[in-house]
Amino acid sequence: MDLSKLYTKRQLDVLHYIWNHDWFICGLHGAKRAGKTVVNNDTFVTELSRVRKIADKLGIDEPMYILAGTSSTSIQNNVLQELYNKYGFEPKYDKHGSFVFCGVKVVQVYTGSISGLKRARGFTAYGAYINEASLANETVFKEIVSRCSGEGARIVWDSNPDNPNHWLKTDYIDSDDDMIIDFSFKLDDNTFLSKRYIESIKAATPNGKFYDRDILGKWTVAEGAIYADYDKSIHEVDDLPEMIRYYAGVDWGYEHFGSIVVIGETSDGSVYLLEEHAYQYKEIDFWVEIAKDIKDRYGNITFWADSARPEHVARFQREKLKTFNANKSVLSGIEEIAKLMKMKRFFVVSEKVSKFKDEIYQYVWNKKTGEPVKENDDVLDAVRYAVYSQHSDGGSKIKLFKGGF
What we know:
The protein is an alpha/beta fold. It contains 15 helices and 14 strands. Helix content is about 40%, strand content about 20%. The model has no long low-confidence stretch (mean pLDDT about 95).
């Protein structure tokens, strides 16, 4: 069989090494859509076959192997669904969520929080496959490694890049141990993707941190302004096209500025920051009146609110304001806004905002942690809550709601 029809050159190079050398831990890391998971999913199958042969020699009826991911959903979507699509494999789960594949008992372990530790303890494993390793709780990850003490046990993991001080980078990628190996991937390594797709993704990916990680596969520390693609001459406007929907974002505050912003969207998916309301030292009654005025002018729109003040969210709801807890995923939300800016689909009504214009240039990355510095973000947080929540959660939450807003 011509394997070049099934795998890219980079994938074949990695698989050739995996199949023909001994190692203890092998990590694949790099750009999104570069082909890492395909390699590890197939390595998972070949490793199970290898474990079954070892168990037969040792007279072990049911060797155990760990399949780990941040949650049951991530394991299903990233690994098991892909195995079903490729090989038609459908697990038959026991009452503990384990299943047998290639004659090996596969135990699922969830690495997204420390609670996953209890599923990783108390047994000897003959190997492990850890998906999305940089998102794993470090203690759970290392417990999985310690469990893999069966003869010939090996561990494979994959990950998108994070900051270069991440424990996965310092302890495993940068390790001097010859039995701990890793391979990096760039988007361009996936030659099965069309040239048009690759060029479109590159054009839509924000400059700086997101481009370095998502396209080049680098473990890099972000530098400078978070919204590096913001250009006043492009993104600040006076005239507005027709809007097809409106919604709002709310960031509660008192000592620091509280903020409510109104967002409009056009039929082509462009987003417009129509107005901001940012004040210090205001009580909830003040914000209720602001929100009611917005409702009077824009209709019964959705308010995506910071869940840090549940009593304020409840007050908005009692006032018949259609209010939901915002999706506060920081990096994903920032990337959503930054992509819109890069694609010239994010605009600001210049005369209707003030604090936004200050924050947009002062909102910066922490060079040590790779996270945003928690300053100059009051209006920007409200914008992020609104846009990212509407795009990621809007349809499902609003359709499911049965209340009387």
